[in-house]
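Entry 14. Ran structure prediction on the chain below.
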Amino acid sequence: MLRLVVEMKAELQNLGTNHPWLPQFLEHFDRLEIQLRGTATQQQKLFEQISQTMPKSVTLEQWREICRENLVAQRKLTTSDFHNAGGMDLDKNYVPLAIVERKSRKPQGMGQSEQREEERLNPIAEDSFFEEVLRQGQSEKSQGRRIAIIGEPGSGKTTRLQKIAFWILEEKLGLPIWVSLADLKNEQSIPDYIKNVWLEKAGKDIAIDDLTQHKERIWLLLDGLDEMTARIEGRHVEQLLTGWVDKARAIVTCRVNVWDADRNAFSGFDIFKNLPFEREQIEKFIRRWFGEDGNSK
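Output, structure tokens:
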């Protein structure tokens, strides 16, 4: 309407001054334009007020903080009451274990002891694993995008995954989303879990669409495949990595015996096995443990 009035006013002005009625008409158009412009300004203010009440898109930094809050809450759940009550700093007591890559299946006829020796040929220090495999993507099958960390019960799989999560945040490499696979109900998919459980844990009213915009920055940290199933199958891969999360990076932990039952199910994953504590590492852990305890002497 305003545009039409302005255009009609311009056309009248082009008629010149030979029409005695023209000044009066132009005056009417001037008043109408002023009224309409006032209305437009009021409408703009109204639009601004409405936009202020609408939820804003979540920034990448805000997503990082949401990930951090959820990780801190998750770590408390996996830390014993003994540690929490004593105020023990688990980061200071942490002793990084070496890790070894599994590049191929055991050749026919090779004994179990020979398989262990093969895995120990090239142990990788944790720092090197973080930098070379996770940051630089130096892994044979997935270029660091699909990683399995396997190990015996109590070998530190969950603890290592937690270290990876906070390292990702510290280095600003992406958005780590922790999923305890034992929490998946009735073959629930990861996208459904993130939408209905993970975002609720954040305690914020956020649309899932805000998160999917960053899907290529997401690291799915899938802890405890063996707690989700006693036998892994191809359908479990589909359950975990279908939908928009197929663009995310994924690190899964699993016990050795469950993983070895069917390695082909996760054939696109590079496999790394936690090595057991060496004697020196056990002694270091004990010294750090009792070093935190003022009554240990």
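The first strand starts at residue 99 and ends at 102. Will compare against last week's run tomorrow.
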